[in-house]
Amino acid sequence: MFKQYINGRVVDGNGDKKAVLDPATNEIIDYVSCADKAQAEEALNAANEAFKTWSKTPVNERAEWLYKLKEACTAERDKLIELVSKESGRPYPAACGDVDWLLISLSYYAEQAKRVEGTVLPYQGNGDKPNYQIVTRQPVGVTVGHIAWNYPLGNASIKMCPAIASGCTCVIKPSSETPLATLYVGEIAERIGFPKGVLNIISGPANEVAKTLNESKIPRLISLIGSYETGLKLLEQSSTSLKKYSLELGGNAPVVVMPDADLDEVAANIVAKKVGFAGQTCVNYNRIYIHSSIYEELCKRIAKELGKVKLGKWKDEGYIMGPVIDNKARDRMLDLIKDATDNGATLVMGGEIPKEFEKGAYITPALLKDVNDEMRVSKEEIFGPIIPIQSFETLDEAIEKANNTIFGLSAYFFGHNSKEMSKFFENVTAGEFFVNGGGGTEFSPHSGAKQSGMGCDKSKWSLEEYYDIKFMSMIP
Q1: Alpha helix locations (H) across 145-223?
Q2: How many other CB atoms are there within 10 angstroms of residue 128's CB atom?
Q3: Which part of the chain is CATH 3.40.605.10?
Q4: E strand map for 88-243
Q5: Using CA atoms, how far apart are residues 233 and 226, in angstroms rounded to an integer?
Q6: Averaged over 304-323, what is the pLDDT?
Q7: Annotated catalytic, 73?
Q8: What does the alpha-carbon distance between residue 411 and residue 157 come to, in Å, rounded to a whole number?
Q9: Which of 197, 212, 378, 429 could form a cystine bridge with 46, CB 3.0-4.6 A?
Q10: In sequence order, what are the beta bridge partners of 27?
Q11: What pLDDT, on the 0 to 100 scale, is given for residue 130?
């Protein structure tokens, strides 16, 4: 039974007992004794009290605690990998990546907080008296982080690590679908005597726990990785007081493939992106636009590459794709495919529930040809292993299609003409761009435009959100 981590102690939840399922088998992994409203308030109060001293703790000491937590989590790496894999359905290599993201974030923010500097403005006189003007930064206060299920530890790390490093305190709420690995970090924190109240990890129903965290006047910053609809609900619930926000609300990423692209590399890249963690990432390819001169050929090469992929779990060998998160998500994939084929698209391959994996939330990766922008698969964030392709004639047409969405998180371009790259970059509205398979790191900014959110995750720009600017004008 997994428990809550509140004010430095692992405690039983006062709410209901919830089973957490392995999506590969739909068998129960373990149970969580959920937190209730009173415990959400207790976590907020603990964080509020701890902020009084933690905010004044020297940055080197804060960094030492993050390194201690990293060392303890590294010792438990195998356990954390197993928990992430079982609760999210990630095959072993992908689960390793999620855990290692946590470990990297712990040390990155420990060091980056040491580089946050103030400024002395140019000397100003005040009559016959000297006047010095200083700008510095102070931690904002208590922060709340709502974590998406697809990266249980990676997503948690980019919320809790900058908070702790900056001198803020935090309450982290993992998704109810994947709470186990994150709650286990709470157990590790208790064992090393992590300072009371600085980090709190609680799991429970959103309509009780998340609502309580959002409506409270204690948090000064609320962050979320989740859906657009959840973001709107959070803003409504949290309007009880002025707060800062960092909201990553998903995307509908366009992919534009030009005639001079390396077709084998593009095909391999598209398949790897869409079957890696079964396509369940907010930055995943959603609308794939291929120039008409290479359309048929690239479709064949994508199909050939898809033929290498096998369904499996955990440490199965080969080119493995795991399940989607649950049967509801799998059934939604089937609905998206049906809507597309009913409206003129062709299902080239995949899109079926395999008999040998029917107990789990599995679907074979699907290739849809001749999709259009009116289909659900183009309008909605897919969040699954569907590859929808359509053709275009000119780059101007592709740019217009790319911008035809309320979202603006990630955008992708394949081709080698620098003028075309620049035109795409300058005219498509998105927070991040990737050319010819380039990718971000734990240290590059991850931000969105339009309805994909506000604020930034990862990098030094994310850390800045955890500070308020503080100005002083001084006549000695």
Answers
A1: 152-166, 180-191, 211-215
A2: 5
A3: 4-249+452-474
A4: 119-120, 124-126, 129-139, 142-146, 169-173, 199-201, 221-225
A5: 11
A6: 96
A7: no
A8: 24
A9: 197
A10: 22
A11: 83
Identity (one letter) of the amino acid at 276?
Answer: G
Q: Taking 90 as the threshold, does the pLDDT of residue 124 lie above it?
A: no
Q: Where are the beta strands (DSSP E) in 230-375?
A: 244-248, 253-257, 285-291, 310-311, 320-321, 346-349, 366-369
- Mean of all residue pLDDT scores within the chain: 96
| The pTM of the whole model exceeds 0.90 | yes
Q: Which two tokens stand for residue 358?
A: 């029917």
Q: Which residue ranges does the chain devote to CATH 3.40.309.10?
A: 253-446
Q: Which two tokens stand for residue 340?
A: 């597309």
Residue 352 annotated as catalytic? no
Task: List the one residue out of 67, 131, 58, 51 whose CA is nearest residue 103.
Answer: 67
Q: Can you name the CATH fold of 4-249+452-474?
A: Aldehyde Dehydrogenase; Chain A, domain 1 (3.40.605)
Residues 34, 161, 168, 282: which is the catalytic one? 282
Rounded distance between C-alpha atoms, residue 48 and residue 473, angstroms: 29
CATH number belonging to domain 253-446: 3.40.309.10
Catalytic-labelled residue, pool 177, 248, 381, 465: 248
CA distance 73 to 79: 9
- Using CA atoms of 189, 192, 193, 194 in order, give the dihedral in degrees to the nearest 10: -50
How far is the C-alpha of 254 from the C-alpha of 273, rounded, in Å? 13
At 439, the pLDDT band (50, 70, 90 cuts) reads confident
